[in-house]
Fold each of these.
Amino acid sequence: MSETVINFKTSAKLKAQAKEVLDEMGLNFSIALNDYLKKIILEKRIEFTVPEIPNARLRKAIKESREDYKNGKSFGPFKNHEDFEKSLMS
């Protein structure tokens, strides 16, 4: 099997953090990146993840909903979809 070199840019901080984790696992960059490339080929996709932290608008809505629930302003049950929509729009 012939080998080739791939160069790419990343931040020094990201590289150091990744190296620390890989060292703890007993792995190196070549093993980790080759495995990731094989996964891309096998699945034919790249999964991008986002933190599960709600944005400010959603945090506000969650807070308001919790306050409404505490104050007895619960919604539903609804007899049909139209009643549900009317409740949402009010």
Note: The mean pLDDT is 90.
Amino acid sequence: MKKSGKVKLVLPSMKYASAYLKALKEFAKIGEITALGVHVELKKIDDFKVYIKRARDNRNGFNLPKGRVPSTTYWAVVGNKIVGRVDIRHKLNKNLRVIGGHIGYTVVPSERQKGYGTQMLACALPIAKKLGIKNALVTCNATNIASKKIIEHNGGKLINKVKKDKILRLHYNIKL
């Protein structure tokens, strides 16, 4: 693992819009479309006004698409660089109890294996606690060894294995 800087989580803002577009291009190159988080197509800086409004609405539980729960999106920043994204779901629905859980995260491809995922989850846990979550459900695919290590490093205890759509998912509890 390469040495990494200290991660801070920030709410989406115009300050980091260019850095986030750069990160999204990196995700697109390897076909990871889930990196977007808030569902707004971002191709240019002007699109960020809609993205930021949607992120604020999601955080406040306004205008949520059917089947969605309130959630807060954070960008993981080191210096002025976006190294990842974290989503904290304020509560769980039926689908999130199987896929997703309370906290989801993704690290920019060029920033992987530097410890950022572990830091991102560590930063998200106190925020989840402030939201009233006492036991955070964090899930990952059984084949995602990096994510498994991130969760376990942050105190995750394996509580279940669930197979859905032919994919085995590991369910961890992190006591807050």
Note: The chain has one domain: 8-131.
